Amino acid sequence: MSSTRVHSCALLLAAIAFCSAAAKDQPAAVQSIKVVPDDRGAVIEVTATRTLKPQLQTVQNPLRLVIDLPNSTLDTPKKRVPFRNQQIKDVRMNQYQATVTRIVIDLDAPIAYTWDAAGNRLHIRIHPDESASAKPATVPAVTPAKEPVAVPYAQGSSGALVEAGSRVGSGSSITAKEETAVLRLTRGGEVRVCPGTTLSVATSPAGEDLMLGMNTGAIETHYHLDESSDSILTPDFRIVLPGPGEFNLAVKSDPRGDTCVSSLPGSNSSVVVAELIGNGTYEIKPDQQVLFRQGRMQSVETPLAACGCPPPQEPMLRTENNPASVVPDDKAGNKLQLANSNEQPASIPGSGVNGSNGKPAVDPIAPAGPDSKPAADVTAQVTTPLVFNAKEFARMKAQTPAELTKKVAELPFSARPAAPLPPIVVLPPPLPKPEHRGFFSRIFHSIFR
Questions:
Q1: What is d(CA 62, CA 112) in angstroms, rounded to the nearest whole number?
Q2: What is the radius of gyration, based on Cα positions, of the chain?
Q3: What is the DSSP string of 290-351?
Q4: Which residues 6+ apart lie within 8 Å of 314 measured at CB?
Q5: In angstroms, rounded to a whole number, what is the distance separating the alpha carbons of residues 99 and 21?
Q6: pLDDT tier at 123 (50, 70, 90 boundaries)?
Q7: CA-CA distances (angstroms) from residue 138 to 64, 70, 424?
Q8: Distances (CA, A) of 298 to 92, 181, 230, 292, 411
Q9: SS3 label, residue 76
Q10: Measured between alpha carbons, how far is 214 from 15 in angstroms, rounded to an integer?
Q11: Distance CA 358, CA 366 (A)
């Protein structure tokens, strides 16, 4: 064989190897996804241009199985497979990232699963989890950490933190009822679970990364991250907190699918919100608040209301009328003082209580002793019209209790002479005014006098 022919064969083999390597680097095309029922449950059958290796995880609130197919693209227009049995409610798929196809199976009950691949066909076999009644479902399915993740606290109305329960490990959940519950993380910082919210807690195998999951409700994060990265899962989004940074974050999700994400004061790092079904992402910077309507990233708003937990209620003072503390009339003091009076109240006879000047107070109606001086007589005059109505008098008399009438009749009366009238002084009549006479009048008066 000539050298030229050998060289040509070598070039041909190199070209074939290059084409094979290039074909392997190209993403596999997912051509079809269908669900086939079997005796134990159902089988998800995925057909692609070459063998796929899936990544599966179970997520709570709501319960679902998430299947990621790395290095693949979705080459089918179908986004949903209508199928339902005792475990599966719905099957939907989308292009999660540029080279990742995601299949989400909405579940009605806990499941167990296995998978196998034969050529370009991938089979994911789903059947009921027989051990689900013996242990609670966890979120998500990761290896438990060696030490507790957090210690739960409950925040009372006074704002103080009091211990509320045992330590929380990976795969546990905590529910806040009427008041905000606080999880103090063993690595530092805390997570606040707002009233009416159930939060699931899980960690990575090394125990560095924290994953929080919730359905509806609200939570707040208040902690610092170095090089780790935490995640918060809601029914529609995955919120990634990439360290390093200070993450004071509030997340709220309601039954309509509206998701609010807000950076609280003190936060100095951005967070990334990614769609669970889809490849959309959104960066939320510090001091920014965003609302995604109905779980869609295409509808972004700036909400006016806060996303986090409500402030703690201030303690309230309540007062009530205690009938036992009312002093009867017969035991009340002999002297009543008006609210605007400057006179200090006198003591009650027999009680030993003195006035404000430190001296024994004098009973104002006690009988005068032989050495006592009469007080100055003060007379007040009031002018007012007197109108008598016989019907009104009869009505008031009928409504007056007989005991009160009897006590009024027994009151002592004392007669006091009326004040003397002022003396009457009669003035004399005025003197006659002297007449003014002229010259001729005086002459005639002297002649005929």
A1: 17
A2: 49
A3: EEEGGG-TT-EE--SS--SPPPPPPP-------GGGPPPGGGS-S----TT--SPPPPPTTT
A4: 157
A5: 17
A6: very high
A7: 12, 24, 111
A8: 19, 33, 24, 8, 88
A9: coil
A10: 53
A11: 20
**Taking the mean position of all CA atoms in its chain, how far away is CA 305?**
11
351-370: string of b/e by CB count within 10 Å (b at 16+)?
eeeeeeeeeebeeeeeeeee
* Dihedral angle of Cα 109, 110, 115, 121, to the nearest 10 degrees: 20
The C-alpha atoms of residue 435 and residue 345 are separated, in whole angstroms, by 72
Token readout for 424 is: 């009457």
Compute CA distances 154 → 182, 314, 412, whole Å: 6, 16, 68
Q: How many CA atoms lie within 13 A of 172 on its CB side?
A: 17
CB 193 within 8 A of CB 155: no
The overall longest dimension of the chain from CA atoms, in Å, is: 201
Per-residue pLDDT reduced to its tens digit, 171-230: 678 888 888 888 888 888 999 999 999 998 888 766 678 889 999 999 999 999 887 889
The Cα angle at residue 91 between residues 89 and 92, in degrees rounded to 5: 135
pLDDT band at 364 (very low <50, low <70, confident <90, very high): very low
The structure tokens listed for 321 are: 């009328």
The dihedral sign for the CA sequence 288, 293, 296, 299: negative
Please provide the DSSP assignment of 437-449 as one string: --HHHHHHHHH--
Q: Over the chain, what is the mean pLDDT?
A: 74
Helix (H, G, I), strand (E, B) or coil at 8: helix
Compute how many other C-beta atoms are within 10 angstroms of the C-beta atom of residue 195. Answer: 15
- For 200-220, b where at least 16 C-beta lie within 10 A, e where not — what string? bbbbbeebbbbbbbbbbbbbb
pLDDT at 119: 86
* Amino acid identity at 121: R
Q: Report residue 185 as tokens.
A: 């993380």
**Helix or strand run (H / E) with residue 128:** strand 121-128
